[in-house]
Design goal:
Layout: E1 6-7, H1 23-32, E2 37-42, H2 54-60, H3 67-80, E3 86-94, H4 100-110, E4 116-120, E5 123-126, E6 129-132, H5 137-148, H6 151-169, E7 175-178, H7 196-213, E8 216-220, H8 236-245, E9 249-252, H9 265-271
Parallel strand pairs: 1-2, 2-3, 3-4, 4-7, 7-8, 8-9
Antiparallel strand pairs: 5-6
Helix pairs in contact: 6-7, 7-8
């Protein structure tokens, strides 16, 4: 028996690398597909010049002045759909290595309103500063692979950050889960091979940390939409291991357009078991 049908990772018109569609189109699609809960989890602002590419910086997250507008927007959608679908007001927070105070300030400001946090690792130290691990394969090769010298070292640094993210998330009072835990594999078809045994070892070591911290997993299917990935960002064996430990699995379409809502839910359905 599956838990409530819930899309726990979605975006809005406040996403500068997404779509300008109004939220009603997303939520109406969720209702049409039989979802009972729909979490709105937009990217909040980032620290100024967080990545060295200013053009990219403008596409990654909303400017600071828009965060209150986004929160009001999410609250208005929650009120509008009350009684039809449970809307979760949330954010996809970034693990900001060396600048956790920036995230703490956002959480402190909106702690009473925030119901959902997807906590993700998108950035690693690289050539010239912090680099986005999921921008393009060429950017990854030029600014991360060249910096660390091997895929093994990049992968290890990524999971080091995931472990630190779990530690931070465990202290959050609202529903929380780690976003697309295997995002490091987004460009695996175009980069040097990643050792699957290394990934399995790192994910296995993460399981007790998730369990002890009460942190869930975003079963993110967006990788299926990516030509260089072709698979969900959470493997089947890891889902089974999470279920065995009572770690919450929450489906996430990572929708950036209304037609993304519900994408890949069949994968989640086929590999999820309620305890």
């Amino acid at each position: 028996m599956l838990p409530m049908k819930w899309d726990g990772h979605t975006h809005t018109k406040f996403c500068y690398h997404g779509n300008d569609a109004e939220e009603e189109l997303y939520v109406d699609r969720a209702i049409e597909l039989g979802f009972q809960r729909y979490s709105i989890t937009e990217h909040p602002p980032l620290p100024a010049s967080w990545v060295p590419d200013e053009k990219l910086m403008g596409e990654l997250a909303m400017p600071s002045e828009e965060l209150p507008l986004y929160m009001d927007y999410a609250k208005s959608i929650k009120q509008k759909y009350e009684g039809r679908i449970d809307i979760g007001i949330g954010l996809e927070l970034d693990y900001l290595h060396g600048n956790l105070s920036f995230t703490e300030a956002i959480v402190d400001r909106y702690q009473k309103e925030l119901e959902d946090v997807v906590y993700s690792v998108h950035y690693l130290q690289g050539k010239g500063g912090m680099r986005c691990i999921d921008f393009t394969a060429d950017d990854f090769a030029d600014n991360l692979l060249s910096y660390y010298g091997s895929m093994e070292k990049v992968v290890d640094e990524y999971y080091n950050h995931v472990e630190l993210a779990i530690e931070f998330a465990s202290k959050l009072p609202m529903r929380k889960r780690i976003g697309h835990i295997n995002l490091i594999e987004k460009f695996w078809m175009k980069l040097p091979p990643i050792d699957e045994a290394q990934i399995k070892n790192r994910l296995t070591a993460i399981l007790p940390k998730l369990q002890q911290g009460g942190v869930g997993i975003d079963v993110n299917t967006a990788g299926l939409r990516v030509a260089t990935c072709g698979k969900p960002y959470v493997p089947e064996w890891f889902m089974a291991a999470c279920t065995a430990r009572g770690i919450q699995l929450v489906y996430g379409s990572d929708s950036h357009r209304p037609d993304h809502v519900g994408f890949g839910y069949d994968y989640f359905e086929a590999n999820s078991q309620s305890k």
